[in-house]
Amino acid sequence: MKHNSFPRRGMLIGSAATLSAAHAIGANSEDNDSQRAITQDVNGAVIAPPYAYVGCYTGGSNARGIGVFHYEPATTALSLISIVAPVSSPSFIVLDAAKKFLYSGNESGGGSCSAFSVNSRTGALRSLNTQGAGGQPAHIMIHPNGKYLLSANYTGGTVAVFPIQADGSLGSATQIVSHFGDLGPNSGRQEAPHPHMVLVDSTGKYVLVNDLGLDAVIVYAFDTESGKLTEINRIDAKPGSGPRHLAWHPNGRVVYSIHEFSNSITTYNWFASSGDLNTVQEASTLPSGFKGNSACAEVLVDKEGKFLYASNRGNDSIAIFSIDPTVFTLTLLGLVHTQGRTPRHFNFDPTGNFILSANQDSANIVAYKIDKTTGMISPAGQYASYPAPTCIQFA
Questions:
Q1: Could you give the percent of the chain with pLDDT greater than 90?
Q2: Which of 47, 121, 123, 116 is nearest to 78 (CA)?
Q3: Which of 182, 320, 345, 368 has the fewest CB atoms within 10 Å, i.e. the most exposed one?
């Protein structure tokens, strides 16, 4: 089995037709409001349809910023409304719990994070501000208390914490922590620490960081008053595995870590009393006998905690696992092709009935219907073009 060391941006392919469908506007999509299909309920209250926001890599492609889409849950159709530009390589984006604000981690230059307000009626974005991140973010997350944005900075090897102001804008970083330690054996990709994801536990007291360069999960205690991190534990992954992303089981006692280079997922038991992890299982994301190059990317667990989904770039598939209801170990059920290349990110839609995959190197987003009984997915018959998509989130 060959394990691919994918470059950060891969081969970027854009779609000029996509960009002609909606004009780009300076970090603001307010002037496309007239394109929205607004309805009313029986009492005359405005019902805004769901919106999808797509991050991308802008270097080397004709992508220009954050894509704002109308999303139709019944059909999974995506219709591009506008592009919020210029925002340089907003490769990961998140929305707050109330869907009032959107934040982007901008993987370019020295690295930064940007804040936007969301028009709840139209889905339009308005730029609030941008703060330097102390490195290029691979992943960002809002703390459950809504007061902080945390950033895992792949380039720079740091983790940053930003206070979120009352108006949704970002304050200057309260802390930027530099990672250090023994590096993994992959000299091409593990030449330095590379934090790849930040994940807060359900109590808000701990922050888990997967570091691809150090082959480790680093656990921090988080002071919600000062916004400061203190390392309390470090759990080593297998050498050369490249820990990338993490996903909680809904019970909050189990966390799954996907490894980019070894194409595998580790099941950990989580002990909140000590901030520690215990390895339970290692499972491959690839079919038996696979001989090509591949590298894992995203991992998600459904809200019922019955199934886990993981993306393979190279094999270009989403692997579906069942989760044992007692010990929470994984059993591979099958793999479904993503109908595109390099599925960097995928997400459940607001109904939980569909998965949409952002296929970076084929410049498309593809929808899949979830069989709630078996966990398997099948093409829903809808796709949308967008240059170098790297992340999709819904409001």
A1: 86
A2: 123
A3: 182
- Max CA distance (Å), the chain: 63
Contact criterion met (CB below 8 Å) for 218 and 238: no
> For the CA atoms of 239, 244, 247, 248, what is the dihedral angle to 10 degrees?
50
Q: Where are the beta strands (DSSP E) in 133-186?
A: 136-142, 148-155, 158-163, 175-178
Peptide bond into 86 cis (omega under 30): yes
Inter-residue contact 69 to 54 (CB < 8 Å) = yes
C-beta of residue 380 within 8 angstroms of C-beta of residue 354: yes
Triad 306, 308, 309: Cα angle to 5°: 145
> pLDDT grade, residue 281 (50/70/90)?
very high
222 φ/ψ sector (left φ>0, alpha ψ -120 to 50, else beta): beta
Cα separation, 356 vs 345, in Å, equals 9
> Average of pLDDT values for 34-62?
68
User: What pLDDT does residue 34 have?
Assistant: 35
Element (DSSP H or E) covering residue 254: strand 254-259
What confidence tens digit (pLDDT) does each residue in 203-248 have? 999 999 999 999 999 999 999 999 999 999 999 999 999 999 999 9
C-alpha R_g of the chain: 20
Does 22 score more than 60 pLDDT? no
Does pLDDT of 4 surpass 70? no
Q: Starting at the earlier edge strand, list the strands of the sheet with 125-132.
A: 90-95, 101-106, 112-118, 125-132
- Reduced to 3 states (helix: H, G, I; strand: E, B; else coil), residue 322 is strand
Q: How far apart are CA 337 and CA 319, in angstroms?
A: 9
* Mean pLDDT value of segment 304-311: 98
Q: Which tens digit of pLDDT belongs to each residue from 181-205?
A: 999 999 999 999 999 999 999 999 9
- Structural domains in the chain, sorted by start: 16-394 (2.130.10.10)
Alpha helix (H) residue ranges in 196-342: none
223-232, long-range: CB < 8 A, 24+ apart: 224/143, 224/145, 224/147, 224/148, 226/174, 227/147, 227/148, 227/161, 227/163, 227/174, 227/175, 228/161, 228/174, 228/175, 229/159, 229/161, 229/175, 229/177, 231/177, 232/275
Written as six digits, the tokens of 22 are 């909606």
Q: Does residue 92 contact residue 43 with C-beta atoms inside 8 Å?
A: no
